[in-house]
Write a structure and sequence with these properties.
The chain has 148 residues and is of the alpha+beta class. Helix content is 17%, strand content 33%. It has one helix and eight strands, in the order H-E-E-E-E-E-E-E-E. It is globular, with a radius of gyration of 26 Å.
Length: 148
């Protein structure tokens, strides 16, 4: 017994459209499933690397480490920030890096992407970055002497 199935052009268009819609939905699901929501207060530590980008969901990725002022002479390869507690408003971070004795951190700001909105207590995992100022240290033997 032979069965012949014939479809009109409009039936093929509907099937093609449904196929594309299913493919688009599957692609969207795959992209959404790669994002992880984490409560900021529960993040114990962050390790950030020069030359790497953060994860972005609601906004574009940014550099994990960015010098925004001061000397900016040294490329810091890795910064580790430890969660020192919560002050009722935000997490208090202590950030450290291996710097030569000639340089020190000035201000350091840790910023993470809120998962649903900017001040969401939940963040997108991998979205945190550090912006810092780098300052030079004056050494004990670098005095200005004036002779009269």
């Amino acid at each position: 017994v032979a069965v012949t199935v014939s479809m009109g052009t409009s039936s093929l268009c509907v099937l093609a459209t449904l196929g594309l819609l299913a493919l688009a939905c599957a692609n969207h699901y795959d992209k959404q499933s790669q994002f992880t929501r984490v409560r900021l207060q529960d993040v114990g530590a962050l390790t950030l690397h020069q030359g790497r980008m953060t994860t972005g969901r609601r906004s574009s990725p940014i550099p994990q480490l960015q010098c925004v002022g001061g000397a900016c002479h040294v490329q810091i390869p890795v910064v580790q920030c430890e969660n020192k507690g919560f002050d009722g408003v935000d997490v208090q971070w202590e950030c450290k890096a291996d710097l030569s004795t000639d340089y020190r951190f000035g201000s350091v700001t840790v910023a993470c992407e809120g998962y649903e909105y900017p001040d969401d207590p939940y963040i997108l995992a991998g979205s945190c970055g550090v912006r810092y100022r780098e300052h030079t240290r004056k050494h004990q033997n670098e005095h200005t002497h004036t002779h009269t």
